[in-house]
Amino acid sequence: MNPFVPLTLPNGTQLPNRLAKAAMEENLADAEHAPSDELIRLYRTWAAGGVGLLITGNVMVDRRAMTGPGGVVIESARHRERFERWAQAAQADGGRIFMQLNHPGRQMPAALGQPTIAPSAVPLDLGNFSKQFAAPREMSEADIVDVKRRFVEAAVLAQSFGFDGVQIHAAHGYLFSQFLSPIANRRTDRWGGPVENRARLLLEVVAAVRAAVKPGFAVSVKLNSADFQRGGFSPEDAKAVVGMLNPLGVDLLELSGGSYEAPAMHGQTRDGRTLAREAYFLEFARDIGAVARMPVMVTGGVRRLAVAQQVLDSGVAMVGIATALALDPALPHAWRAGSASAPALRPVTLKNKVLASLAYMAMVKHQLRKLSRGQLPNPGVAPVYALLQQQIDTTVRNRRYRRWMRQVTSH
Ligand SMILES: Cc1cc2nc3c(=O)[nH]c(=O)nc-3n(C[C@H](O)[C@H](O)[C@H](O)COP(=O)(O)O)c2cc1C
Q1: How does DSSP assign 86-138, residue by residue?
Q2: How many C-beta atoms surround the C-beta of residue 186 within 10 A?
Q3: Is residue 360 situated within a structural domain?
Q4: Which atom of ligand 1 is nearest to the CA of 361?
Q5: Where in the numbering of this chain does the NADH:flavin oxidoreductase/NADH oxidase N-terminal domain appear (predicted)?
Q6: Which one, of 137, 148, 45, lies nearest residue 101 by Cα?
Q7: Which candidate, 29, 67, 171, 377, has a CA 20 to 30 Å from the CA of 118?
Q8: 140 CA distance to ligand 1 centroid (A)?
Q9: 3 state DSSP class of 229
């Protein structure tokens, strides 16, 4: 199917085509963790490239709980003007923008110096890298209520800033994904155990967000089709969760997979199971698509028009693209004009899976930084160079974040 056919979501939101820029954490917030001029320029560039839907990199609902330094935080209307400019930059060429909302749970770098909370006191297992993440404390009922309130307030704020929708991040091992995982969630109360309990927080948040926003404001969910860990969130669990999401008014369900412990979202799994080299999650999407009553979007590995078409031919409504759009923000226009462009990064050959995943992320973030400064991307960037550059950027931003936290808590 031609990706340049418009799509109308269940709530009436019209998307000009079937290609979406999937969420990519940019680490480009300003000193007060609001959208910076660089971040806004990056979205203007993507919008000009013809993508139909832009999903922001994850925005934090709690300044104390960050996936990394330099993340945008949404807690109040204090930086309204910056958020409005961000939305408008993305919408300037007819595309739509959803804000991805996230809470990292235990996947919060220890260097940020904040207490870490998670469904259970189960630390991340990243081998030699485990110390980069603090051991979490088990969330209380009050913590759970607070998280729910924050997601709802953030969605209402995003709506008031002119965004077209929100995406609730329930994939990749972050907080909701931790609740869904029998490995990370060992609770014996109504938030743990059977999949109905593990999914309860996500379902309650989705229902509360849908009830709080206008019908024309879209609500999307990003869910793992599987965690790719033995004993983890399984494809059967995913199907059950989609069944429970069906009646809640979700407008778009994005399917991905993996976590920091098993970074399948970049085509690698910890247990060595091989994934198809392109459109990694398509097989799962076919299965889950049979249950889903809302439009489904599949993300992971798409960089060729023929593959995007194949994804749509299988009955999937939208194709999510991250890496390839960081390498060529004008890819949709190029494809539409008949180009066979298939942007690719230099392959990462590092043996250690965690390090390889970090290098991959660093190489993509290198492109985001370049685009945000109005420069051309550099697909040939060396993994070690990108890692080093990312390390320096992270150290500087960590320091800035800690300083900011000291200031905001002191008045
Ligand atoms: C640098 C980078 C940052 C990412 N940040 C996010 C994020 O904030 N939220 C999210 O849901 N996925 C994030 N992802 C995952 C992508 O959305 C996508 O699922 C994954 O990269 C696979 O798609 P691709 O093969 O087209 O890159 C990120 C990926 C990269 C490379």
Answers
A1: HHHHHHTTS-EEEEEEE--TT-SBGGG----EESSS-----GGGGGGBPPPEE
A2: 14
A3: no
A4: 1
A5: 4-333
A6: 148
A7: 29
A8: 30
A9: coil
| 27 alpha carbon – ligand 1 mean position (Å) | 13
Residue 274 scores a pLDDT above 50: no
| C-beta of 265 in contact with ligand 1 (< 6 A) | yes
Please tell me if the CB atom of residue 301 comes closer than 6 angstroms to any atom of ligand 1. yes
- Give the range of the structural domain holding residue 119, as residue numbers without chain letter: 7-346
Contacts of residue 320, defined as CB under 8 A and 6 or more positions apart, other chains included, come to 20, 21, 22, 55, 254, 256, 297, 298, 299, 300, 302
Q: How far is the CA of 406 from the centre of ligand 1 (A)?
A: 30
Average pLDDT, the chain: 94
In a domain? residue 339: yes
User: Per-residue pLDDT averaged across 287-307, rounded?
Assistant: 93
Could you tell me if residue 400 is inside a domain?
Answer: no
**Which among 270, 349, 282, 343 is positioned nearest to 318, based on CA atoms?**
282
> Does 282 map to a domain?
yes
* Number of structural domains found in the chain: 1
CA of 394 to the centre of ligand 1 (A): 18
Closest residue to atom 2 of ligand 1, CA basis:
24
> What ligand 1 atom has the least distance to the C-alpha of 169?
11
How confident is residue 100, by pLDDT bands cut at 50, 70 and 90? very high
Give yes or no for residue 222 CB within 6 A of ligand 1: yes
Q: In which band, very low, low, confident or very high, does the pLDDT at 270 lie, cut at 50, 70 and 90?
A: very low
Cα 169 to averaged position of ligand 1 atoms, centre (Å): 11
pLDDT at 228: 83
Element (H, E) at 392: helix 383-410
Closest ligand 1 atom to Cα of 360 = 31
User: What tens digit of pLDDT does each residue of 350-393 get?
Assistant: 888 888 999 999 999 999 999 999 999 999 999 999 999 999 99
